[in-house]
Amino acid sequence: MKLITDAFEGDRLIGFFLIKDLQQKIAANGSEYFDLVLGDSSGTISAKLWDITDEHKETYAVKKIAKVDGIVTLFRNQKQLQIQRIRLSLPEDDIEIQSLVQKSDVSREELWQELRMFLEEIYSPTLNKLVKTILISKETRDALTTLPAGMKMHHAYYAGLLEHIVTLMQSAMQLFPIYPQLNKDLVLATCLLHDIGKTKELSDPISPEYTTEGELVGHIVLGIELINEAAREVGIPSHDEELLALKHCILSHHGDVDLGFGSAISGKLPEAIFFHYLDQIDAKLNAMKMSFKGNSEEWVYSPMLKRKIRNLNRE
Amino acid sequence: MKLITDAFEGDRLIGFFLIKDLQQKIAANGSEYFDLVLGDSSGTISAKLWDITDEHKETYAVKKIAKVDGIVTLFRNQKQLQIQRIRLSLPEDDIEIQSLVQKSDVSREELWQELRMFLEEIYSPTLNKLVKTILISKETRDALTTLPAGMKMHHAYYAGLLEHIVTLMQSAMQLFPIYPQLNKDLVLATCLLHDIGKTKELSDPISPEYTTEGELVGHIVLGIELINEAAREVGIPSHDEELLALKHCILSHHGDVDLGFGSAISGKLPEAIFFHYLDQIDAKLNAMKMSFKGNSEEWVYSPMLKRKIRNLNRE
Amino acid sequence: MKLITDAFEGDRLIGFFLIKDLQQKIAANGSEYFDLVLGDSSGTISAKLWDITDEHKETYAVKKIAKVDGIVTLFRNQKQLQIQRIRLSLPEDDIEIQSLVQKSDVSREELWQELRMFLEEIYSPTLNKLVKTILISKETRDALTTLPAGMKMHHAYYAGLLEHIVTLMQSAMQLFPIYPQLNKDLVLATCLLHDIGKTKELSDPISPEYTTEGELVGHIVLGIELINEAAREVGIPSHDEELLALKHCILSHHGDVDLGFGSAISGKLPEAIFFHYLDQIDAKLNAMKMSFKGNSEEWVYSPMLKRKIRNLNRE
Amino acid sequence: MKLITDAFEGDRLIGFFLIKDLQQKIAANGSEYFDLVLGDSSGTISAKLWDITDEHKETYAVKKIAKVDGIVTLFRNQKQLQIQRIRLSLPEDDIEIQSLVQKSDVSREELWQELRMFLEEIYSPTLNKLVKTILISKETRDALTTLPAGMKMHHAYYAGLLEHIVTLMQSAMQLFPIYPQLNKDLVLATCLLHDIGKTKELSDPISPEYTTEGELVGHIVLGIELINEAAREVGIPSHDEELLALKHCILSHHGDVDLGFGSAISGKLPEAIFFHYLDQIDAKLNAMKMSFKGNSEEWVYSPMLKRKIRNLNRE
Amino acid sequence: MKLITDAFEGDRLIGFFLIKDLQQKIAANGSEYFDLVLGDSSGTISAKLWDITDEHKETYAVKKIAKVDGIVTLFRNQKQLQIQRIRLSLPEDDIEIQSLVQKSDVSREELWQELRMFLEEIYSPTLNKLVKTILISKETRDALTTLPAGMKMHHAYYAGLLEHIVTLMQSAMQLFPIYPQLNKDLVLATCLLHDIGKTKELSDPISPEYTTEGELVGHIVLGIELINEAAREVGIPSHDEELLALKHCILSHHGDVDLGFGSAISGKLPEAIFFHYLDQIDAKLNAMKMSFKGNSEEWVYSPMLKRKIRNLNRE
Amino acid sequence: MKLITDAFEGDRLIGFFLIKDLQQKIAANGSEYFDLVLGDSSGTISAKLWDITDEHKETYAVKKIAKVDGIVTLFRNQKQLQIQRIRLSLPEDDIEIQSLVQKSDVSREELWQELRMFLEEIYSPTLNKLVKTILISKETRDALTTLPAGMKMHHAYYAGLLEHIVTLMQSAMQLFPIYPQLNKDLVLATCLLHDIGKTKELSDPISPEYTTEGELVGHIVLGIELINEAAREVGIPSHDEELLALKHCILSHHGDVDLGFGSAISGKLPEAIFFHYLDQIDAKLNAMKMSFKGNSEEWVYSPMLKRKIRNLNRE
């Protein structure tokens, strides 16, 4: 079965897809149609289903799985699927939603093992205990290991957040020998927990939306709250120097306050400054990689950088 | 005894003063001197004590009270006291530090009574309980009712924070009939708690300095932490709509995130938008009033506005 | 007859509407259609009339009243009326344009009475005379009491400017006891006259456009010109302190110059600073209220704030 | 008699100077001294008079003329005069204040003749009449032909404003053949009147200060007021297209509103855009020329550009 | 044959046009169409060709010439051609691509003659030799005399860059008598070479695209490279003062670095400051002129200024 | 012999120091003194020599070595040396200037060896050849291995630039396994050459000043010029993809153009984005480390970050 990123203009695409977005619209001739976003494990494609009926409207919805047969066309340089036949998947099709979701290259299990290994590199009893306490919660652990790192910008796929965290920990480990002045425990704990608030900001990993908490409090402060709860649980006093330093690194990880990207405080520790740039590297390189993926053009538009970027390594 | 704000160029000033700042310096001729800031209940004045000895160095320090005799001169349009005689205050002088600190015009007791009265206007059981729980702590209450609202910019005097809070509550109460769409309980709780984190950010009311927590976490998030603790104590669940709304108003009270003034989230509730501007009015009008105070000039420099401002009402 | 804000997806809407905008377009199938904005006393709705003829083109135009029968659909989460039948209103329909225009909640007459009452609170002979002289002109008075406060952002409805002014005066009156240092006469005159230049900037209250003066001079300076004319008429000298202060408050009411929002000078009087924020509160709270109106969603997009805002009070 | 700009480190400087600034200060050893700015026709120099007496304090003041004998030293790379002898000028010295003021290279009379000649190039009866009406006022004419163009930045010398205006008119005349689409009359009238409000913003040409009007209204709007008065006097209606265009060019001459340099409206006419840049060229080239003057260094600090600039043409 | 700028709503337009852009799209009814931009010597128009076939897709492409018959309609206030008949131009039509390209008002030959004349005004042997060496290259000369000055903003037509350069030289020559402190040779060489890098940044004059060099290096630094090559060729040492000054003027010609418009260094020479504003005048006045062209409206939207501008001189 | 960073308030400091800055000033009592900056291998200290004579003025100058005896005092929280005895160093003192210059912790020789080793990791023949060609020049190599990376901000000591480069190469090597999409050769060459223009921007390693080229062209473009020369020398064509990519990484290494930090182009390659942040990490961590050095305070002011930073690791 051909995957979305392998299908090009003129190809016929038949298979099962997850409905990731569905908008009911009226064409200029007055007839109604669906404007859809379909997904499989390789990526997403926008699609049109023309001349829909009431039955269509009742049958299809976001998060349902459909079997689709259509032709790939180009619309404003984007691939678009013109659906010719569609039906809902049946129990006998035996399709699991998990198989239709874009994931990181490394398996979630491997990433999780790696994260656990890095955990053992946090020697500070305080920080080690704190991190483990947070990860003991099944709810947090499940969210942390399945959510994307964000809605659109970078690591925007199943378990993207976990991949982002593990990559940051790897990078940090690699750079510690070069910057021995850094407090290794503090940096690793920051890598692991900097976006922990996203487990409360985003609703679910398949088609995430912002929660009320996410909109009103934001993931940075939601993360601080999770940390405070864990600290209290294991008896770390609120004035503990390491706890304060960890919270500082998280509160400042969007860069200087006056840049207006949402840090609550400007970085005042080498670890905070270091982590901010490490996070930028990982977010932007991932965003660029995803923009290049399945794209054979020399120049590709990057939504994150808001400019065209160049793919030196395309085959 | 003449007060600082009543003394002008050429006047002799004799009295007891609190040493608010003391720097030991070397004059161009190699001799040592003190560069001081002295305070009484009316304000502060910079002062010089020339040709100091080792005894001077051992005797005088910040927060001590000294009896001083000197002449007021002008230096770059600022009053400066040339000290001619100085001694530490003695027990028999019977001078209390409280009597040498600048305070708001209204007494701390009256402000506190007024605050308690406004508390009864918070009818929401959740918010009422939350606020009262926070104020039950003697430590918090003492800090809240003695600290300045800030180091320099506005309400920078003993109990300035309390005055700021009470004034905001008064203003809000006055405007509720005009904007009935506002949730009164939410706005009043925001007035009361928006700067509650300053009770942990600033060290003490007489000569406040930033605490480690203040530098690393900042008063906005410190305030959220105090609120979370109180909520947990009285069993308000973390998803409670009113609790989230209150935290939102506090997290956004420095204005839109992209302005870069340190809000962690941009205001998304009418109450948040309303409170931000109310806070700006009170902060800036107080700063201008303090700049005008004891100044007979038509135009006065305002450190908060960074420009000259005009005193229409000087006598 | 159902009103626009009471009609939801799937409803049939029959009634008289004011044509507020009309664009002739060509559909992708080559046929022509009207893209309309229709209004009644409750608000506006976009509408489509498909397959139009030359007769349609000659018959319908902006500011005409039409009887319309159609079905409400949703297009990109906005309501859209699919017109099925349409005709111009006839004399025997006895529909007045006034009845199809969105207005403030309080009647224009009541607002005008209130404004006149506040006028008597301006005790300064100079400012009182000045304001009254400006309001004596029937042309100015008519414009001031019928225009919206702006094209789109806030109080964008019939007599919205008058409602904005009266609300500001009410707010100011409520806050005077709290900020006794403010010159009450100056603030009230500023409330009344701060947007007086809009009477020359906007062409008419029903479907306002910018005048040439409005585009080239702007309402702030047009307002200063109206004030200067009135001052000359009643013999207030151009150096009069109160006149200068009033002009200063108006010239600075868009905030500090370096923010780039069009103030000609940065505020240097407490009254100017105070008024700027008061104006912001009223503009933004009104804009949010209008965004919430007739919208049952929890989160609503606010064009003024350029973000989603939350409606705590929806039923 | 040696002029200020001809005196270098180590030189003795004897002559008559205008006291342009005088501050009484206290040295670190407790003795009092004057910190002065002295001026002659070539420029200004800072000066110190040590160990002053009460007689000194009563004798010397800003705008007085003094005969001074001193040695030029260098302080932070700036020339500074160490005064050894000083006395007030006497009637028999026969020194006129005019001879001690820095002026433009071209005489005020010649500049005035040139301005009058350009006036005849304004063929539009409306604009011609308007400009002449403004110049008929002796008060305005005197101010316009003696004031500096600003306090510090550019053309900051006697009749600098006149020189600035005439240079702009010359430049505009030179460029008209190249940009024939420009309305010549409009541009010339803008050159002449763009800073006319400075005649009310600045107090006097010898040691100018901001007037109350200048601080509260600003020279841009003060200029509009002068133009409106003249228009009314000669019966130009307020809706006159040329009058509106002229006011637009003046209101927008500080560049786009969102740059925050104080334009009340952004330029919407080619003449407005053209004039803004012409004004920038003249202001900045004059500022750089004045920074180079009397300075033999290769690199000179420019207060206007806030960076070091290079003098290619120094001898 | 009617030209594009002379055709208005409802007109029939028949003639030969250059296909400047061609996008294949799918209409809401599923049929395919071309979205085209057609050009002739007067300007460009967007056009639609409905219901295209495979033959259409194979026949038409960018840079081909087509004979078209269609009706002008209005779509969102922009003219749009509804194509009814179309065919490729045939050899016997004898249409040259040159005749279908928008050009400057003055002929390329005249502009070139004028440029050569100005060259003789560069008396500095170094700069004269440098400029001539660059212009000796046929490739550079051809590009310089045919390219637009930019893709869209200003002088965006055949030989627009040459016209821009010559106009700048004319303007500079006119202003030299007024600013004698300017180094004339340096300014003229800057006019000529400031955009010389565009000869490598843009691919071709008819339908220019950015080259890889253009995207990765940018025209400013590409220009510096061309100058360095020429300097080496004729033996001008890299430390030559005039060479450095020329490079400085080019590197700073987008204004101060901190404005973020791409200057590599902020202007530190009067010639650099002067040239920056001269360039701004010519770019913006040209952009406004092109926006007005063939537009009979009083107010026209300017893409360069991002606001509506006013045409005082329309007939 | 005690080093500067080991001397605290009250200590006597005797030894040889390099005069890094010398300003002649006049004290408030009229006597002359030297305001000096003295340096040894551990850092710098400001110093005063009171009551200087003509002999002093003739004897001492920047870059001379003096033997000094003085007492360390505190002035505004900065250490300051009060010189009691001073003489120039004599040949028999046998003091080399090299021994009095602050250096990186790793020896210049080791750094150079490491750089050479990394060179061998650049496998691309083009980039390898290019880099080696540049390093063959003894002048460039000497400058590259002795200069500071900047005047003040980071790595501001002898061979600081070399240390900065080598550290960047180490960091990059460590991160390559994590970001395999990066072109390793391109990143390493960028590390090595990104600041190569500083070899022409700064005059000498001991007391560096900006050269004329540095001021007028800036180190980014000076670096591009060096690269172009080397490319020509070894016959790499100007359109070579790797050459263009390298130049792009260097031209964009100050971040996005619109931030206004002097990049000539915004980063469009993953390598460019990656390098920019890597460079930020190294610059800022080094600046913070140098601010902490020899400072026992908990909070230290960082000139680079313009805020107080916290030293978690002080002993």
TrEMBL record, chains A, B, C, D, E, F:
CDD domains: HDc, YhaM_OBF_like. GO terms for molecular function: hydrolase activity. PROSITE patterns: HD (PS51831). It comes from the Bacteria. Gene3D superfamilies: Hypothetical protein af1432 (1.10.3210.10). It holds the Pfam family HD. GO terms for biological process: rRNA 3'-end processing. SUPFAM superfamilies: HD-domain/PDEase-like. Keywords: Hydrolase. Residues 161-284 form the HD domain. This is HD domain-containing protein. It comes from Anaerobacillus isosaccharinicus.
